[in-house]
Amino acid sequence: MVFPLYHVNAFTDRPFAGNPAAVCLLDCLPDDRWLQHVAAQMNLSETAFLLPEAGEFRLRWFTPAVEVDLCGHATLAAAHVLWEAGRLAPERPASFRTRSGPLTATRDGDRIEMDFPALRPEPCPPPAGLAEALGAAPTAVCRNRMDYLVELSSAADIRELRPDFARLAALPVRGVIVTARGDDGAHDFVSRFFAPAVGVAEDPVTGSAHCCLGPYWGERLGKTDLRAFQASARGGVVSVRLVGDRVRLGGRAITVLRGELCV
Questions:
Q1: Is 46 a catalytic residue?
Q2: Structural domains in the chain plus CATH codes
């Protein structure tokens, strides 16, 4: 089997920044074990697999260790590849069938906006060992069906975190989002995302985390349009627009490698 394969940086317009994802264009669906092997071989936080299906695309996301229910940056990368490779006309939306239901992406020049479900967090007691695992004292702790969200007192605290990944991996969630108000006048909030339990110690820029962060900060700041920065080593900017029970996530992407998967 030979499949087109792309390496795309999402939530950035330049190489060596944002969140890298592999995108594999399929013409048949291999078994799950094969898909997981490919994701492990790519060794990126996510590999997206796309299969044409009744005018739409079946989309699945794998970390090097597991399949996940929702991934923003690899969806952005997948939509970018479909338009760049001529699989979709520039004016046509990308429609995906996923484990989180139907998702769409639209193109406006070099910017892509994705329509995702809002994953609102609810306040909860901090789990035992959370502060020790992060090495910081939370000012608020919430949880949705996938992740813990932890607010810290300042953006500087977010940037300076050096968490204990082994302790974080023991928590019964996909990952831990840490966040604080922005301090640079350009961004409403900053965040980082740790998911060692699913094989990703720190994700550079996490679209699905902003499905939680958007409603959280929208309520606190009284805004429906927000600009966010994920303060990983690579860094990336995410625009967030709240529309009822949906979150519109916007960003750019750039292809850094094209090739063929020969297996």
A1: yes
A2: 2-115+249-262 (3.10.310.10), 122-243 (3.10.310.10)
